Amino acid sequence: MNDAPELLSVRNLTVDFATAEGLITAVDNVSFDLREGEILALVGESGCGKSATALALLRLIANPPGRIASGSVAFRGQDLLRASEDEIRDIRGNRIAMIFQEPMTSLNPVLTVGRQIGEPLMLHEGLREEALLEKCVKLLESVSIPEPRRRMGGYPHQFSGGMRQRVMIAMGMGCAPDIIIADEPTTALDVTIQAQLLELLRQQVETHRTALMLITHNLGIVARYADRVNVMYAGRIVESAGADDLYERPRHPYTIGLLRSVPRLDQPTAAKLVPIPGQPPDALRMPQGCAFHPRCPFAVARCRAEAPALREVGAGHAIACWVDVDG
Ligand SMILES: Nc1ncnc2c1ncn2[C@@H]1O[C@H](COP(=O)(O)OP(=O)(O)OP(=O)(O)O)[C@@H](O)[C@H]1O
Ligand SMILES: [Mg+2]
Q1: How wide is the angle at C-alpha 250 spanned by C-alphas 247 and 255, nearest 5°?
Q2: Residues with CB under 5 A from ligand 2 (ion)
Q3: How far is the CA of 51 from the centre of ligand 2 (A)?
Q4: Which among 64, 67, 114, 188 counts the fewest CB atoms within 10 Å?
Q5: Any bridge partners for residue 74, and if so which?
Q6: Residue 93: helix, strand or coil by DSSP?
Q7: 3-state secondary structure of 233
């Protein structure tokens, strides 16, 4: 059990998008906690609401079309959804850093990399001149960027995809934040670089007791790095468990399906991969009851009528399912 102090406490978070076709509930009543030094994974298929959840925590949902419809996000007891613009700006980048899914959307193409790494350090830590330069070089070295002094004068387009992700991580770590939110930080990269970057993030967590929220659809990454896993489906958390527990004894039919659909290091190589039948639901036409029921081999009548809430099925293990497959 992790009894480190709680850093972030999210309760009943709901995010809507008003689209031309109608209202989409991208995040539906999501609650979770994040503790000091913890690596929490958020997993689920494309469109299930992972990025919207992360963006909402820092009030980065573009309005319109988006809106945080309800809920609370407490960071060390402070409600971020009700904080002033100044307060939230100070927390972003300084206390809670976000590494975005696509680095080119968050790196400014017309500013040098050095300037972009240096700016938050000037702003939040008051560093100037030689001290600032030294810190920037150190940060770029820590993410294994060769010739950091020279590379600081380069622009983002002069860096490869992997290098840009490293720059993002360096920027994220710059102010020694309490929390790093990494949204699919490695999907676009080849596997060796993925592994290097994840190791970097892990070192950061271990050295500074930083908490890490790792958003990914790669269950291999989850198994290897996460302490806890929240599985999301159609905007909701459908299973939450310790990582070992989740792999050993998944209890939600969706998680069971996900685990069967990807190769696993802890299973004989002959284990057959079985994709989950069907598609995730159309956000504009959510099925009645449990959103997973049309794809679920265990569905019973109640699943078609009523959406299940998360309920405890073991120590630190909860599922949103009427049928506890393994119960
Ligand atoms: N700006 C937007 N306008 C309208 N709908 C949006 C917007 N951003 C997200 N959505 C919708 O909200 C839902 C959740 O999207 P989100 O980006 O959070 O998914 P995700 O889990 O991060 O997916 P991926 O794995 O592809 O990154 C989707 O149905 C998506 O189409
Ligand atoms: Mg996303």
Answers
A1: 100
A2: 51
A3: 4
A4: 64
A5: 9, 79
A6: coil
A7: strand
